[in-house]
């Protein structure tokens, strides 16, 4: 799903149902048509999200994700847990540290009294991402320059 499609999905859901949960929205971006029925085992989620089972177990062990277990102890990921993993994955891809993600999740689980702290944490992270984007744009300009020096053409 493209960024535009994701944003449109979020806007549509918000106008129809109030503000939807982000984990739910992210989980809806998955193509679950070919996936087995929910809940999914850790290996199935790892395959679906193209990540390792080890990473999923690590997220659970450090308290970022909570999943139910069968009577025999096997993990069962529901849509909410899968959405949480997707959200964590996005935060990690954007460079947020495990420590900051852990702090954020702890604030979420504490409840509505922590909204201001969550907002501040996310705003700081957004500012960091904006700086990184500007640095990447400058780096791209430098690389484009060198490509043209060698006789290549810029790609826009």
TrEMBL record:
Q: Which domain of life is it from?
A: Bacteria
Signal peptide (from-to): none
Q: Which InterPro entries match?
A: DNA-bd_dom_put_sf, MerR-type_HTH_dom, MerR_fam
Tell me which species this is from: Fodinicola feengrottensis
Record keyword DNA-binding present? yes
Start and end residues of each HTH merR-type domain: 42-107
This protein is called MerR family transcriptional regulator
Aminoacyl-tRNA synthetase as UniProt keyword: no
Cite the entry's keywords alphabetically.
DNA-binding
A Pfam family matched in the record: MerR_1
| Alphabetized PROSITE patterns for the sequence | HTH_MERR_2
